[in-house]
Amino acid sequence: MKKAKKIIAYVTLGLGICILTLISLGHTNLGNLPTTENSENNFVTVRNEKIRILQKGNGKDVLFIHGSPGLIEDWNSIFDSLAQNYRVTAFDRPGHGYSSSNEYTYHIQDNALIVEELITKLKLKDPLIVGHSYGGSTIAYMVTNGGLKNLKYIIIDSPLYRSRSALIYKLVSTPLIGKGIAVLSSYTIAKGKIKDGVTPIFKSINKEKIDELVKERQKIWSQPKVIYSKSKETVNYQSDLDLMSDKYKNITSDITIISGTDSLSTLRKDCEKFHTEVKNSKLILLDQTGHYIQFDKAEEVLAIIRGKIESN
Predict the structure, then answer these.
(1) Residue 23 lies in a domain
(2) What range does the domain containing 57 cover?
(3) 64 domain-assigned
(4) 270-276: long-range contacts at Cβ-Cβ below 8 A with a sequence spacing of 24 or more?
(5) Which of the four pLDDT bands, split at 50, 70 and 90, describes residue 81?
(6) DSSP string, 99-129
(7) CA 251 to CA 1: how far, in whole Å?
C-alpha cells in the first residue's frame, strides 16, 4: 500500500511539473520570429495587431487573403505579374507569418474586421478581394454579414460548409497548456508534419520548386504562434461555418469561385454547393490541380483575376 501511494505521489508530482512547464513555455516567445520592420517586412497596426503587409504596383486595387496556415508568400506565383498593371496588396493574417496575435480570438469574424480596416487604413479603392482557403471563408463571412457587399470577390478552393479538426489541433487548443504544447511541437514534430502535409497538395509544379516552397513554410509555419493559431482556427472553423452557411442564399455580391475537378485534392464539393446557393456567382473548375491552385495554375488564375478586374 505504501509503495502504491509513493508511485501515485511521484506520478502526480511529475504531471504537476509537466503542466507547470507547459504553462511557463506558453508565456514565452520561444520559437517565434520577430515582428520587426526592416527591408523585407513592413507593418501596420490594425485592431491592436501588428500586421505584415506587402504592396506593389499602381492602378486598380487587388487585395489577397491567405489560408490557414498561410503567409504573404502564398501569392508569390502571381503577385509580381499583377503588380505590373495594378496595385496589389497582401498581408499576413493575425497569428500567421510575421503578424502578431495579441487580441486575436481565432474566428473568421476577426479576419473580416481586419480586412475592412486594412482597406480603410491603406486607402484601397474598391479592391478586388481574392481569398484562398480560410481567406475565401473570410470573404464568405464578409458578404453574409454586411461588410463590403458591393465589391468583387474571388474565392479559391475554400471550406464553405465543412471542416475537420484533427486531435492534435484540439490538444494544442487546450486551455492553459495549449501554447506550451505548441512550443514543444515547434522544436520537435512541426517541420516533419509540415513537409508531410504540404508536399502532396501541389500537383503541377516540379519537385525542386515544391522543395523550395516546403522549406519556406517549414521556417514560418513551425513558429509556436502559428501552430497555436492554426489549431484554434481549425477547432473554431466548423462552428464559424455553421453560423455563415444559412445566409449564403441571400448573397448578392459578385463572386467567382475557383476549384479543381478532383475533389480529393481540392474542396470542389463545397465550392459547387456554394455556387448553387449564390445566384450571382460563377464557378470555374480547373484540371490537374491541388489545393494551392494559384501555384499549380498560375497563368489561369492570373487570367481570371485580370478578367474580373476589367469586367464591368
Answers:
(1) no
(2) 31-310
(3) yes
(4) 270/158, 270/159, 270/160, 270/161, 270/162, 271/155, 271/157, 271/158, 271/160, 273/160, 273/161, 274/140, 274/155, 274/160, 274/161, 274/248
(5) very high
(6) ---SS---SHHHHHHHHHHHHHHTT--S-EE
(7) 68
Q: How far is CA 91 from the centre of its chain?
A: 11
The CATH number of residue 234's host domain is: 3.40.50.1820
**In which band, very low, low, confident or very high, does the pLDDT at 228 lie, cut at 50, 70 and 90?**
very high
pLDDT tens digits for range 86-142: 999 999 999 999 999 999 999 999 999 999 999 999 999 999 999 999 999 999 999
Q: Within a domain: residue 144?
A: yes
Q: Could you give the CA distance from residue 8 to residue 3 in angstroms, rounded to a whole number?
A: 9
| pTM of the full structure | 0.95
The C-alpha cell that represents 238 in the structure block: 466548423
What total number of domains does the chain contain?
Answer: 1
Would you say 91 and 52 are in contact if contact means Cβ atoms under 8 Å apart?
yes
Q: Would you tell me how many other CB atoms lie within 10 Å of the CB of residue 53? A: 18
C-alpha dist (Å) from residue 34 to 30, 129, 132, 161: 10, 28, 25, 35
Judged by DSSP in three states, 285 sits in: strand
The contacts of residue 194 (CB under 8 Å, 6+ apart) are 214, 217, 218, 221, 222
